[in-house]
What we know:
Elements: H1 3-8, H2 14-23, H3 25-28, E1 35-40, H4 42-46, H5 50-57, H6 63-71, E2 73-74, E3 88-90, E4 96-102, E5 105-108, E6 111-119, E7 122-127
Amino acid sequence: MTIYNLLETNSDFTSFCNFLKLSGFNSLISSEGPFTIFAPVNNAFKILPKGRIAALADINNNTSLINTIRFHIINLKFESDDFENGQLIKSLYGERVEVMVKQEQVYINEGRILFTLKSDNGNIHAIDEVLIPDNRYFQFF
Length: 141
């Protein structure tokens, strides 16, 4: 089962799967890989400001969506025990995410890893926040 198949069959990732389909990245993460996906759970989308959700869903300007999705994808496979405090990992977006370990909890930027799922083409690390690229050219509006 591929990463996308696993995400699609797990009710925790309905919102993320919808955005993957909209962006077209569902086909990429269905390919051979290996990949690591930092996948926000549904509740992570509920805490985003409404303007950001609307911008992500805007089919007339999908740059924000594509950049956001690319920030959640890594072109390597990372196991849970591969993460080290202070580690920087380059995303498909080109910007790095930072690993933080606090009281035995692993965070990717500010998103806490809740659980990990393994697939044939990589790993999914469920996180409790949507990762937003920190780039002055990144726009939601």
